[in-house]
Write a structure and sequence with these properties.
Length: about 375
């Protein structure tokens, strides 16, 4: 193996008022207290109601779980002192982006000027998983193969059915908002690292972007770390689901490297076809299945998940993550956060569904800390 398969997780949270359950801006004192405890592992986000954390570089998923639990606990503890609570969800069930304040930061000011209304409505949160792949050429080799599985990761992670109080009918409305930005979606196919640098370098040389952090594909080589960074997932209300999805991402990378070491590759399909599965995951989550391009039929997601667990068993055993990956079978059969939110909403008295969903999300955030 020519990769370390180290892992890192970045998550974005929303802050809500414990009484109104609406979004609330993070006070300076809250951010300062979190920074004093977490140092560079916490930062403000584009909107003042958002906060971002990132684990250290972890050797194992178990190590990442401990670090992410520590990060979530810290944010919760300090937020409570201001009558706030964090929720790990990709869209707030009822708050409106027009009522939110922006974080004053050069990078975010530039984003507003460049993107205008497209940036101003970015009231969304995501989860990014980094997997260590030290060789640049290997990152380019693995990226189009790993892209096949991005719809699977999205389907399992869907947590954003609501937008400004309305049920959008989608399992991940976050992606609809995010895709309005340029340089998003599935990554292009590059023949080499050199081609990738030449292509992205064109925008850098023209002054259109400062660096490749302004390229927001669903999967990209990280600008800061020797990793492949999967960015497709909605953020997870429950810590255990975050860890399971991170473990799945890590095992997929290892599986592709294992094939490569045997002079094999995962078949690459056209972005047009993978985009169709991406849309199905965005629209339905795990409820309607994805296209099996080899068999040329739509297969139930639970069936695909069982197949994926079998495919990755060797890698999960080697990484010590089989239990985490098997946990995802429950998401495939019982439903993701999007379905749980809808169930809570539908069970609430008329006019109280949004508040009930937020209370549910607060409970899930704290359930396994």
């Amino acid at each position: 193996m020519q990769s370390s398969f180290t892992i890192g997780i970045e998550e974005e949270y929303l802050l809500v008022d414990r009484d109104s359950l609406a979004l609330a801006a993070a006070p300076d004192a809250l951010m300062q207290a979190c920074r004093e405890e977490l140092q560079e592992q916490v930062s403000p986000e584009f909107l003042q109601c958002q906060i971002e954390v990132g684990t250290k570089v972890c050797e194992t998923v178990a190590e990442a779980r401990d670090d992410l639990s520590r990060l979530r606990s810290c944010i919760s503890r300090h937020a409570k002192q201001h009558n706030l609570a964090p929720i790990a969800v990709s869209c707030h069930p009822f708050s409106d982006w027009k009522n939110q304040d922006f974080t004053e930061k050069d990078r975010y000011d530039a984003l507003q000027r460049e993107m205008e209304a497209v940036a101003r409505r970015m009231l969304i949160c995501g989860m990014h998983v980094h997997v260590g792949v030290e060789e640049k050429r290997l990152r380019m080799d693995l990226m189009p193969q790993l892209s096949y599985f991005l719809p699977h990761l999205l389907a399992l992670s869907t947590s954003s059915p609501y937008w400004k109080g309305d049920d959008t009918g989608l399992a991940s409305y976050r992606l609809s908002v995010f895709d309005n930005l340029p340089r998003t979606g599935l990554p292009p196919r590059f023949a080499s690292w050199g081609e990738y640098e030449r292509t992205t370098g064109t925008l850098i040389d023209l002054g259109l972007i400062e660096d490749t952090t302004k390229i927001w594909w669903d999967l990209r080589p990280s600008d800061r770390y020797p990793t492949l960074e999967a960015r497709i997932c909605d953020v997870q209300p429950r810590l255990a689901d975050s860890i399971a999805l991170a473990g799945l991402t890590q095992a997929l990378v290892r599986m592709l490297m294992r094939l490569r070491d045997r002079n094999l590759t995962w078949r690459e399909y056209d972005r047009f076809l993978i985009s169709e599965n991406r849309w199905r995951a965005q629209r339905y989550g795990v409820t309607e299945g994805l296209i099996d391009f080899g068999e040329r039929r739509i297969r139930p997601f639970a069936e695909l998940m069982d197949e994926l667990i079998a495919l990755l068993a060797e890698d999960a055993e080697a990484l010590g993550t089989l239990d985490e990956i098997v946990r995802l079978r429950d998401l495939a059969t019982e439903g993701t956060s999007a379905q749980r939110q809808r169930a809570v909403h539908d069970a609430a008295p008329d006019g109280t569904g949004g508040a009930a969903v937020v209370r549910h999300l607060i409970e899930e955030f704290h359930a396994d800390l």
